[in-house]
Amino acid sequence: MRVLVTGGCGYIGSHMVRCLLHAGHDVTIVDDLSAGFADTVPAGVHLAPFDVRDPRVRELLVDREIDSVLHFASRIQVGESMRDPRLYFRDNLAAGITLLEHVLSAGVRRFVLSSTAAVYGYPQYTPIDEAHPTLPINPYGESKLALERVLASYATAYGLSYAALRYFNAAGAWTDEGLGERHDPETHLLPLLIDAALGKRAPMTVFGTDYDTPDGTCVRDYVHVRDLSDAHVAALVYLADGGESGAFNLGTGQGHSVREAIACVERVTGKTVPVSYGERRAGDPPVLVASAARAARVLGWRPSRASLTEIVSDACAWLARQ
Ligand SMILES: NC(=O)c1ccc[n+]([C@@H]2O[C@H](COP(=O)([O-])OP(=O)(O)OC[C@H]3O[C@@H](n4cnc5c(N)ncnc54)[C@H](O)[C@@H]3O)[C@@H](O)[C@H]2O)c1
Q1: Model confidence over 98-138: pLDDT tens digits?
Q2: Neighbours of 135 (CB within 10 A)
Q3: Which residue out of 5, 6, 12 has the highest number of ligand 1 atoms within 8 Å of its CB and is therefore the one to mutate?
Q4: Which CATH architecture group holds 2-171+222-250?
């Protein structure tokens, strides 16, 4: 396939680009480098260093005969979305709609959206499947859900085929390819814990030890970034085969508490993670675990790097080199 990857210089997008190349697909990247790194682009891959809203994206789609778009480009910070929501409605929702204008007018038929578990809001049951109500509790999740709804309308009206892939907590790295997580600011638990263990940042605060979970700390579902990439390839093949558009959760179905994550980082690094324990933080659900049964059944996708130890080991190997 001939694939355009937006946000292909970011954390997940850069892994996606390598995964597509390994699977034999042709890749083009659009990334404005607002949060990405041009040094992730493999030799021979064309990087168009502009915004997804730029009219040149349409020309690129036509000139390079793109048949599928993977849309990773986005703002990604929940806290920022609470403080300054218009950034999220402008740069995630409105920009996504403009990108879809380019996609439709260029005649591209397949679109895969990086969506998120944040579309569900507070879990009403767990594990969370795709039938769970979608009631986001922050503008980040709202912006993604709204774009999913746009896609559903466009699928019905214009015959666009789409998959909205709702990731839980992306983690891990692909050290052999020189890729890993480089967010600034970093807000994700595992890289923060690892960097704290390696002495690269101040001690971590764990927010809340009195949740109704086995050890009192929050439980999350960590999914390896390479498994996420594999899921996108599966989604592209599924859509190309005429599969029905829709949303799919991507997670391992295994929950790990903050204390378990700390213990795992300590085991892998052989160092103590300096932590302090604080009050609960507003907006953190106690447990967020995916049911990815639909992705397994429909896309044939199962994570093959699902152990927390493997995810943490890969992330550590990358972060230790930074
Ligand atoms: N990291 C996670 O745990 C996680 C979980 C759920 C969903 N997601 C989604 O996955 C996607 C990728 O996340 P990530 O962690 O790789 O983020 P990232 O910030 O590392 O990558 C995003 C990339 O998009 C680029 N970009 C942003 N806005 C752009 C624009 N308007 N035009 C062109 N390029 C633009 C940035 O420069 C960056 O390279 C996002 O859509 C995010 O919402 C991530």
Answers
A1: 999 999 999 999 999 999 999 999 999 999 999 999 999 99
A2: 13
A3: 12
A4: 3-Layer(aba) Sandwich (3.40)
